[in-house]
Structures
1.
Amino acid sequence: MRPEEPNKTVTSLEQVQKRLKWKKLFAKKWFFPAIYLVTAALILTIAWLYQEHGSRVTETNKPIPASLPKEKVPANPTDDDMVLPTAKNSGAVKTMDFYDEAKSKKDREAALVDYANAFWPHAGIDFARKDGKSFEVVAALEGKVIRVEEHPVLGHQIEIKHESGISTVYQSLDDIRVKQGQMVKKGQVIGKAGRNLFEKEAGVHLHFEVRGRDQQAVHPAQYLPQTKQ
């Protein structure tokens, strides 16, 4: 017998065993439904992200996307001026800015979120404490809570509609303290900063957005007092 023959036999046996394992796996009643559910979950996640951010995805080997739509800065400040969405003396500072095409390349790159092998323009401003601890989140403006939900990627989120027609969105929350349909005052505590999957590397933080009447994200700096960084 030639020396190669035992090796060929072993290789053939291993291949047969592997094929049998795959056949047994395919025969399981749960196999294909499980594949379907995983695929469906992935599709829904991407759809949710598109719906929430209204932004184009930039693949890692493609150019940075165009800026998000912006609204004009209010000409005459009124009682509708917002307060920071972080409680006084919370110790929270701005950690990530809104993606703005008018900024430098360095600033634009710093305002991209790397998630699911794609870059997403940051549609708001993030706040966090330097020690990584949680802090109280407050309503930036008086209004009506129109949404309170737990998003699988963005975390717990709250949306408040304001008299002027704009809305503010608070994501990556914990310890929610308001309900849908509730009226809130400017500066009222609505929850605490938490975590989410979309900005996992950010740790405990608040993601804050301002959306125009058309639900497109606009730069919160147009409405907020100067933020520390």
Note: DSSP finds three helices and 13 strands in the chain.
2.
Amino acid sequence: MMDGRFPRQDVTSEILLFSSVKSLLRFRLVSKSWCSLIKSNDFIDNHLLRRQTNGNVMVVKRYVRTPERDMFSFYNINSPELDELLPDLPNPYFKNIKFDYDYFYLPQRVNLMGPCNGLICLAYGDCVLLSNPALREIKRLPPTPFANPEGHCTDIIGYGFGNTCNDCYKVVLIESVGPEDHHINIYVYYSDTNSWKHIEDDSTPIKYICHFPCNELFFKGAFHWNANSTDIFYADFILTFDIITEVFKEMAYPHCLAQFSNSFLSLMSLNECLAMVRYKEWMEEPELFDIWVMKQYGVRESWTKQYVIGPQVVVCSHVCWKSDECLIVEDGNGQLVSCAFRTNEIKKLPIYAVEETLRVLIVDESLISLNRVLNF
């Protein structure tokens, strides 16, 4: 402010674009013009573009016993000790889930997906939540309106969350129906119309989406899952679903690893390439694990074993961080561990939870409100 006057609007906007979401929420109280500027879609979209190169928030979904609850925790990945950025955000909807599912509620099967423009998706069974953790917003999506015949057992075996633009997001549910007359249902939710659609596609023989932790990935405009065409537990191909065309395709694993028996697989993005972490199932003692990278997307022959890491106990592989130089995994004691690709340095992080319940994302802060995204 100079001579009691605010800077010109365009100068103000340019300065504010460098501010964090937390600061901008405070700046909305400075004046009506600042509030109007910060709430405008143009400013929000430009701020998102600026923040996408400076993502610094680790969002951790944790299940703890004292008191027993699910929560989000937030950490500054640029601080040496992973300083907490915000107070924990409890998930109020999980009380309802516990009531609905009674003792069948398994926090180990909660899926955390994203981020997409600062938004994340949390799913358990047919309960799907969207959240903007920076704005501390969380909402439950309406349930699917489709019912299966009585006597059929159903199970949601695959989830996906992605976006086509800043105002249109999709959630995919893959449902297994059986045991008699076994078939697969595909449901897609559209945020711009607040509606679900049943997708019928018999071209891909899906039998099973593997329940590996962190099995799903939204990458290059498509959802990816480890899947198979038989009733066996292990994956034999990667199933993709294009978010625009809504068409399924299959992608092959490396020739030498056509069937990953006795292994878990986690899909991830590494240096803008599709990648996967292969580690031994039910690992009890420290062992080596592999990082495979598809150098040319969609080309089977381009799969390369990029790194061998460990030995380290891995219960779940989560996400790359530190400019894709390290991988975050969960050890056998419910603690997060950082593994450096090039130096093989193993560092325990000060983040704990009940074993197998940790889920981790690196998120770019966003001002996009769920009230803008969800049409209800």
Note: Residues 1 and 7 are 6 Å apart (CA to CA).
3.
Amino acid sequence: MPSASETSEPALPWRLRSDLLIQAADVSHAATWTIKDPMRLTYFYAEAEEMAFLNLLNGQTSLNGILNQLRQQFPETEFSAENLRQFLLSAVNGGLLRACVPGHSLRLNLIRKRQLAQAPLRRMLSLLTHRYRGIDPTRILNVLDHFFGWIFHKYIMVAGVLICGLACLMVFARRGQLETELPGIAALFTATNLPILALSLLFIKMLHEFGHGLTCRHYGGECHELGVLVVGFMPLLYCDVSDSWLQQDRRRRMLVSAAGIGTELFLAAICALLWAVTRHGFLHTFFLNVMLVSSLNTMLINGNPLLKYDGYYVVADWLGIPNLASESRASAIAVLDRMILGFSGMSFTRRSFGTHWAMVAYGFASMVYRILVVTTLMWFMYGMLKAWHLESLISVLLASVVAGFAMTAVRGGHERLRIVNSNPALRIRAISGVCLAVCLLLIVLFVPIPYSVAAPFTLTPGVCAPVYALEDGEIDARVSEGDIVETGDVIAVLSNATLESAVTQAQGEFRVATARAAGLATQRSASSQAASRLPAAEKAVRSRELRLEKLSQKQQNLTVLSPGPGIVFAPRNKPRPRTHAREGMGWFGRPLDPELNSVWIHRQTLLCWVGTDRDLRALCLLPQEDIELIEDGAEVTLTFVSLPAVHVTGSVTQRNAIPETLIDRELIANHMVSATPDSLRPQETMFGVAVSLQFDSSTTMPPLYSSGFAEIRCVPVSLASRAWRFICHTFTFR
């Protein structure tokens, strides 16, 4: 018998719609129910407590009456009046209830008009993604199911899994080839191949969506919508298989959700096998690209349960939590509300303590990952549009995304402000919590923290003294790499028969000219003719002497001496020439190599460097946004590719103010820096930073021109400054 308070309280004027299709979500137990709205073609999940609340709405019972009945029916679950009001509001907004009082249809009409008026604004706030309804694919799916329904046989599905496993083993066995061929994918993003790549992505997504639709249709579900979903200017197909929610067999629901993932993985496996058996060429790279796109898309997007795509629905069905996304997000937000505003729990649930906090962690992770994916997508689109000189469009998309997030935050803040204003007891607690949260946020964002940047580097001779061949000749090396020399030690001796012959001839000419001048000097007192010829003869002697001195100096230059004490460092290896000018001119390697003895060396050829290990410098390459944070004397830790276990310390000695026009070929060969095709010019603006190294006695010094990565300690930078610098250097708003 209802109490006096229950009878005096007004009844809830709502009743569950009788045209809704309601059935148990799982045949094994009726803890979860599926509700289908046949008018809107929308679907809802309701747990046992929520379904009981909806069934108790008869237009005659008050809120407290329903609350008492629920407590009797579910004694192990905590209920509150505020909790029921929130769920009632969500059920009304979802269209599951009809009013028991007149005038509700007029209110619904006003809401409908308001939604239509707000539709353009919603489209403006969702420029990143937009959906266009397409055709009813039922006939197509029926035909496909008739001809290809056999693929759902368990043995066929096992065979597909085995093919995927075989492809994984094959790719793992050829991981070295995969690493070397990855840079070739960049060629597919050229203006010529970009349309082909777009068609391949459309083909992948078409098979993906037909996989969903065919699986849903095969297991008795309905699919009445096949349309186009535009994500970041990329048109993709989508297939509405929401009817699979009515499937009471959880395993079949999971198969429908996982059909797209399975289709892409099988396609990736087939392309991996084709990549392994094809020769190098466009198709070979194309198969590699499709394999990577399909597999990475599955791991990062479709198969990732943190996003509300295929992987999410598989995990939600597997865990038996249909509303996993909304419940986890609500749990995470409820934790923030409790910590900051002091709100009490707003949800009733029978979940354990561990499950509750796992849901909270999942909610926070999904929100962070969503922001990360949106940011990555915006960055990728900016790079793609920049190649077509359309980067200004990214500002429109960025404004749309930021406005969408801002409106969501404003609505949430307005709702919480209303709750705080309606409860004076919460006001002081909420104000103090918000102030504390703002202070902590400001500290996290604006307090400078240690910061370092990674940069590729090459070990260069630095301030070592260069030793050049001053004349042409056949080389005879007298030292080798790593030898210790003193000032004046012979580095190499060059042989030049032409020069030797010229010196001998000049010596003879000098002797002849000297003898002629001496004879004329003897005869000048007796012969006026001899006296007149003497000045010309003396001039010839001086000319022959100057020529002999010049040739003698050239002859002395054939002996290359060390300019100072130190260690002999070999110059950069000269690659094998493609064509030979003439015999003996096409040497390759290092000039001091023993196998290059008697090879013809041109003048100004770098033979070696002479210096100590303290004279060496590591030349680091950094983009403009990072060079601004580097200071002279900054600490540096260098790791060489050839010696990954050895870490060498150093300090910054010089920062180049002029961008580098050429980069070392070792960095290009190791794929550390991108260069323009068939040149040594960097694709982006890079600045050089010289770093002096500090080798100790136990450190093995790597060969000259070894490459690696350097970690440079910068001035402390706050998180807000980093984010602002990233935005300013990534996007241009003009």
Note: The chain has 21 helices and 22 strands.
